Fold this sequence. Notes:
Elements: E1 4-8, H1 10-14, H2 24-37, E2 41-45, H3 53-64, E3 72-78, H4 81-87, E4 94-100, H5 103-108, H6 116-132, E5 137-143, H7 150-163, E6 167-172, H8 179-193, E7 197-201, H9 208-221, E8 226-230, H10 244-253, H11 272-283, H12 304-312, H13 348-358, H14 365-379, H15 385-393, H16 395-398
The structure holds zinc ion.
Residues 13, 200, 202, 236-237 line the site of zinc ion (ZN).
Amino acid sequence: MPRIHFLDVTNRDGVQTARTGLSKFGKTMVNFYLGKLGVAQSEIGFPFLFHEVPYVRAQVALAEAGAFGDLRLSGWTRAVAGDVTASTPLGLKHYNLSISTSDQMLRNKFRGKFDRAAVVAEMVGAVRAAKEAGVATVGVNAEDGSRTDFGFLTEFALAAKEAGADRVRYCDTIGGETPGRIGERFAKLASAVGMPVETHCHNDLGMAVANSVAGALGDLDAGQDAWINTCVNGIGERSGNADLVSTILALQNGFGVADRVEIGDPLDLSWARRFAYWAAYAFNQPLAINQPGVGRNAFAHESGIHADGALKDHRNYELYDEDVLGPFPADWHERRGRVVLTGEYGGMAGFRHVMDGLGVTVAEPELTFKLVQLCNASTGRPLTDDELRLIAAYPHQLALLYPGLLA
Ligand SMILES: [Zn+2]
């Protein structure tokens, strides 16, 4: 039976969002939390960018050391052979290669540089370069796929498959899709090509989660696995991408959906609150009070009839149990009153005090303390308990983030 997998793009689409950003250490934490949540794959960034290279090396080392569980790490590049050959020596085993496919973009973005045939030729060259370099799986992204002529989209996807691609990513780049249409197009494309079609849905109409679910159902109807792109807290270009936690909750609890899908990833939502609140803190973008699952009001009842009903049986007014979302973070640095912290300008006494207080075993105090200083310098805000724990557990791998200083 075909199954659903998650491919989170917070570390690519999420971090390229205007007016926000994450340090490379912050991006590392995203991969850590994705591993804890059990999603299949993280699109970790742009390996051809000079400032991502130490970060990519650190992630590969962390994954090998087991810091991210079974999470697969993938890189994003343009579907251009030169980008691919510049990236593959870094050791990522999975890639998504992206090129625009709609007439709108061919005419008004490429402006005659590429016609349809040239787009296919560039993409095929990039897929072959990746496969020749030993990349394990390749997804090919049809940017603006939702505005792409269906016949050409099929031709593009078939050429990708023939060149060795494993999936095609259908990008609803401007977020204009609707659930009925995307479901139909996915089912048609996946069965015509015989390969999973990956969702990449933007939220310009507030339908990114609905479209992701509908697209995935289209894959399943065609007998193919489904791959769903998400971002933590729905962050992403403009109005964002499909929210990770909402999409999982929809597939696990949606009427008419939950009982007909099988999720292929070992998901563990007991990290959902910790991840969502960490991400709100790290991106400096507060969670909406009504954010599905993790917002402050997701399980709050005040009005008379609802409160009375919820007191009698919370299932009268709640779709899912709050226990599944795990605990809220209770970070050391959030303590009120007298508190000793550790960070960029701290010393060994404060560092030892905090680590002892958290019950963290520090096998390599000198290196770990320097990393606490450097990571705090890069985030510019107090480190969280999960961050301190990761630093203490994997100092040698994290040192790769700071070549010339520690590595
Ligand atoms: Zn996008």
